[in-house]
Amino acid sequence: MLTLKQIYDGKDKVIAGLEKKHFNNAHEVIESVIAIDQERKAAQQKKDAASAEMNQISKSIGQLMAQGKRDEAEAAKAKTGALKANITEYEKAMSEAEERLTQLLLTIPNTPYDIVPAGTCAEDNLAVKVGGWEYGKGLEKLGKTENPFDADGAAIALRDWPAEEDPQPAFAKLPHWELAKKYNLIDFDLGVKISGAGFPVYIGQGARLQRALINFFLAEANKAGYTEIMPPTVVNQASGYGTGQLPDKEGQMYHCEVDDLYLIPTAEVPVTNLYRDEIIDEAQLPIKNCAYTECFRREAGSYGKDVRGLNRLHEFSKIEIVRIDTPEHSDASHREMLAHVEGLLKKLELPYRILRLSGGDMSFTAALCYDFEVYSEAQHRWLEVSSTSNFDTYQANRLKCRYRKAEDKKVYLAHTLNGSALALPRIVAALLENNQSEEGIHIPAALQPYFGDDMIR
Fold this sequence. Notes:
alpha+beta; 19 strands; nine-stranded mixed sheet; three-stranded antiparallel sheet; 14 helices
C-alpha cells in the first residue's frame, strides 16, 4: 500500500496517479487518509502529554508522603488515576484511527510511474516492441526498439495497430482445440466430467508437451540466475493481503472457507511472501527466485470466444520469476526480466509484441507493467502470455519487506517485481496452431531436447 510519506510529500502527484488509474474520488479519499492520520496524531499527542504529566505527578507522591502531606499525596494519586483513564481513552482512539487508516489504505491502488500512458482500456496500451515474424514498414521502428522503457521511443497504441501487418499464415490453420482432438493431446470434455469447464485433461503427447515447457522454462530461469522455489499452492489471508490480491481480487480466488485458505492465482503470492516481515542485508539483493506452480482463478464473468479451449482456464501451469531489489536497481531488474521473457519467446520461435499497459488497464498493485502477447495464426488474434511488473514499494509496505542499507545501516522498504516466464496455456495454443503441417506439429528446436522429438504426429 502507499506510505504516508508518499502521500504527505507528494499529495498532488499521488492524486494525479490515482486518477490515471481511474480510481474514483481520488482527491476525497486522500484527504480522508490525511484527516484520519491527523486524528491519530492528535490522540498520540494527548496521550504523550498525559503520560508525561502522570509520570511527573507520580514522582511527587513519594515526596509528599515523606513530608507528611497525606491529603496532597491522595489528591495527586486521584489525579494520576484520572490521567490513566484518559490515557486509556487516547490509546483506544489511536488504535481505532490506525485500524480505519489501514483499512482505507488497503483500498487504494498503487500509483503508476510517469512513463505509464494515460488511457481507459486495453486499446490505449502501447506496443513498444515486436519480433518473431516478417512485418512491414508500419512496424519497422517497433522491431528495432531495444529499450521498451524509453518513454520517447517508438510506440503504437493498440487502437492504431495495423492488423494487415499481423503474421499471415500460408494456409488456413485449425484452432488448437481441434488439433488437440485430432492428435489426442487434450480432452476438454473429460475435464468437465471430473471438475467442470476450464479444467482440461492433458493426455500423452499433450502431457509431455506441458512437462517439456515447464522443464524448459525452469532450466532457462536457472541459467539466468534464478533460484527455484517449490512453494505451497494454498496461502493464508495475510499472504493474500501482503501481495495485494486481498481485498482487491477476493472474488476471483478460490476460497477454502473451513480453513480460511486461498488457492493461489500465481506463484507471485507465496514466493513474494517468503520475505514478509523480513529485513534483508543490501548485499543479498537483488534476490531472484522462480517457481513452477499450478494456478487457480475463478475468472468470474468470463464468457464468449475468448474462453474457448486453452484461452481462459480455471487451473493452469505457470512459471513465475520474482525479484526483491533496491529502489536504485529495480529499473535495471525490470529490464532484465523483460529481456528474459523476450528471450524465451524468441527460442520458441513465436511472433510476439510487448505492450506498455495504460493506467486504465493496469493491475491494482503495479506501478509499471509490460505484457507480452503471442500471435495465434488460427484464431487470428494476439494472446497474452506474460505480465512483467514493478510494484515499487507498494507490496513491500504491505509485507513489511525491508532491507538494511550498507552505507548508513538504516532500514528501507525494498522494491518487488515479478513476471510470468511463462504461462503455459496460450503458449501451447500458439505452438500447436502456428506449427501445424500435413506431417504433424513441429516442435521448436530449443524445446526438442525436453520433449524428446521434433514433431507431434
